[in-house]
Every structure is written in C-alpha cells, then in structure tokens.
Structure prediction request, 244 residues.
Amino acid sequence: MQIGYGTNFDRCYDVLHGSLEKAAAKVTAPQLVFRAATEREDGHLGYQDGRLVIPRKRFLGSQAIFTDRPSCLVHGDMHGGNVMVELDGGRPEQALKRVCLIDYRNAGPAPRPLDVLALQASVRLSDAHAIAETASPNPAGHELAAVLRTAAQRVHAERRILAETWRDDVARATQHPATMRPPWERTTRTLTELLRANFQDMQCDEYLASAIPCALRQCSFDIGVVARVRMLAWLSAMYAQLGS
Prediction:
C-alpha cells in the first residue's frame, strides 16, 4: 500500500474544484473567491478574512510526498465506522468496556501514520457535520458564506495543533489547556501525541507526507461542500507547514 492510497488525484482535484466553483457562484464576491490549482501553480479559496491554499498538482508527485518512508502493519481503513465500542451498561455516560475493529481487508504494510490519519479524518468530518448543522439544508448567499467561513477558519486551529504537537519534546506538547479546546481538537491532539509516543523516531515531515494525500482524498468523497472546505482547512495548514 502506497502513500497515495491508490487514489486518482486528478479526480480529487476535479471534484474539489467543481464543488468550490459552484459554492463561489452562490456567494457574492469578495465573501468567497475561488481559483483552481494548476499543474504548476497553487490554487486558493479566499474567504472574508483569510485564504486556504490548494496545493499545485505537481506537488503530489514531488519528493516531499513520494519518497521512501518507514512502514508497519496497519489496519488500512480505520475510520470511525470500523471501530466498534461497547459501553458498560450501553449508555454513553457509562464506562468504556471494550473496543474492537472490523473490516481487515485493507490490512498490510503501509506508512506508519495511516491508521491515525484515518481516525483523525473521521474526527474532522464529524466537526464538519456539526458546522453544517448550524445552517439550513440548502444554504445560499450570506448563510452559505457564513458557514463556509466557519469551516475555513478551522485552519487556525489546525496550524496551532501542528505547531504544538510536533515539538521535539512530546511531553511539553501535551501541556496545553485541554479543557479550553473543542472536542475535535482535543481528540486530534491526543491521537497525534499517541502516534509520536508509539513511533518516537517519527518526524513531522513523515506525518505530513501521508496526511496531505489523505486530506486531498477526503475532499473527493461525497461529503458536501462544508466538509470539503473543512478538510481543505486541514490540507492548507499542512501544506504550509511542510513548506515552512
């Protein structure tokens, strides 16, 4: 299994570009401005007070992504739907009794961050669903601009997570006011910290080399424009980190 997950990235770009173009057409500029990425130039989604960058297509084939990386045995599809949780008493407030995984058809050797990334993607999609629920079923105009702006602004938290969880001292990275963070951010931080504790030689660039294709792949799924912008916030933050 390769870092690219066997994904047709040209199709990922087509789906992402098409979705963002339609969204921008429903919103009056300058609330939302979209430019597609090309082979040589980055694209962007500009919103009222910021901009998300879409990596140029050539980047996905660069040495920053496709180079030899350590691998290990992974589940291969560890999204939330394949994690079964049994609670003691069957109610959410009860203590956790057992956790098990299902669907091992993609198990095998793969980049070490793969399973954690699948879980982190599920967490971010849940966050996107919560954002989308604040709007009507088919938002347009100012309402669409507002909900997409909320999704896009997650880029600030994503940058903070990268900066704080990939410090050289993992123990220091855990010393943040966890109770002040939203649930999706706390869970994402915990997963990254556990990944680092398990693979103590892992550096941020190894994580990003797997995470960037993962995030772009998520953008091609049937998840709706709010979730695509939310995943683009993750992708844009990681792209900036890798280039810094």
Summary: The chain has one domain: 9-81+112-243. The beta strands are 32-35, 43-47, 50-54, 71-74, 83-87, 96-101, 108-111. The chain has a mean pLDDT of 88. Residues 9-81+112-243 form one domain.
